[in-house]
Amino acid sequence: MIPFNKPPYTGNEEKHVLTAMRSTKISGDGHYSGLCHQWFEKELSCAKALLTPSCTHALEMAAILVGIQPGDEVIMPSYTFVSTANAFALRGATIVFVDIRPDTMNIDERLIECAITEKTRAIVPVHYAGVSCEMDTIMDIAARHNLYVIEDAAQGQGSTYKGRALGSIGHLGAYSFHETKNYTSGGEGGLLIINDQQFVSRAEIIREKGTNRSQFFRGMVDKYSWVDIGSSYLPSDIQAAFLWGQLEKSIAIKENRLTTWAQYSAGLQSLAVEGKISLPVIPLGCEHNAHMFYLKVADLEVRTNLLEYLAKQGVHAVFHYVPLHSAICGERYSRFHGEDVHTTQGSEQLIRLPIWYGISESDVAQVIGAIQRFFR
Ligand SMILES: *Cc1c(COP(=O)(O)O)cnc(C)c1O
C-alpha cells in the first residue's frame, strides 16, 4: 500500500535532538528554539517568530493578541481545519464563513467585504495547499475597515505571494509543524509569526503563562509575575532541535516535493484535457511549496468510487475538510454569509494524492496509472 503521508525525515534531526537531550536546558526557548526563531525572522523578515506547540496554539495566541471579545465576528472560509475557527470561538467570537473560489479552494476575496458588519474584527485567510489567497485585495479591505488579518499559513511554509513569504503579509501568521505538513518538529509543532511590532511584547507574555518571564530572563525586570492572561505556548527544545534538522534541509525538501507535484500534474494532464478531472490552479504571482496534490472529479459519487478503486489498487488517497458550517459546532458558533456555491461542492469533489518528502517516482507513476485505469 502506498501511504497517503510519511512524516518528513532527513536524517539530520538525530544529531540535533541528541545534542538537545544532553544539554542542561531542554524546556522551551533553549538553544535550538533560538536558532529556529532567528532562521524564521531572517527568512520572513518579520518582527518576531515564536515557536508554539502547534499551529492551533499559534492561532489561539493570535486571537488573544488582536483582542477578540465575545460577540465579535471573524471572517474566514468554511473549507478549513477546525482550529482556524476554534481559536476564535474560544474567545467568544461568532465565525462568519464566506464561500471559496473553486480554482484554489481559498476564500473568495470578492465576497469578504459584504460580510463585514460593525462587529467584524478580523479576517482569517487560509492558504489551502500552500497556495496563496489574494492577499493584496484582502489587506486592502482590512485597511479600509480597520480589521486585523491573521494568515492561517499552516500549509504555507516555503510558499510566496508576489515574492513575500506566506504568513509574513497579515498582521499575524501561523505555521504548522504537524507530521502531515512539509516540515515537522517531531510530530507536533507550530509557529506564530508577528509582523506588526505592537504585538511582540504581549505575545511573549501570553506565551509564558501570562508572566513577564521573558523580560526577566533578559534582565529587563528584577522579578517576574502574573501580568496578563496566557497559557503555556512553548514547545520543548527537543522539538526545536528536530525542526532545526529539517530547516537545514528546507530547500531540498521543497524541491523534492515540487518534483513530485510536477510529475502528478504532467501525468494527469490528459484526463484534465478530456474534462474528467480538474487540476489545481496556481494563480499568477503565487509560488507554492507542493504541500498537497489534489484533483477534483465530477461529484461525490465518482469520488467515492475512485477512492475505493485506488484503495484496491494499493493507493491510499483521501478526501479533505467537511465544511465547518455543516458540523455540529458550526451551527452553534457560526453563520454562513451569502450562498454556499463552491464550498460544499468542492469539498465533495476533492481527492488528495500521496505526497511526501522522498516518495519515489515509481510510486507516483503507480498512482497516476491507477487513476487513468479508473477513468478508461
Ligand atoms: C494542519 C492545519 C492546522 C492545525 O495545525 P496543528 O499544528 O495540527 O495545530 C490549522 N489550519 C490548517 C489550515 C491546517 O492545515
UniProtKB/TrEMBL annotation:
Family, per entry: Belongs to the DegT/DnrJ/EryC1 family.
Source species: Pseudomonas tehranensis
Class of this enzyme: transferase
Keyword 4Fe-4S appears in the UniProt entry: no
Annotated signal peptide: none
MF (Gene Ontology): dTDP-4-amino-4,6-dideoxygalactose transaminase activity
Keywords: Aminotransferase, Pyridoxal phosphate, Transferase
EC number(s) per entry: 2.6.1.59
SUPFAM superfamilies in UniProt: PLP-dependent transferases
Source taxon at top rank: Bacteria
Pfam families, alphabetized: DegT_DnrJ_EryC1
Name of the molecule in the record: dTDP-4-amino-4,6-dideoxygalactose transaminase
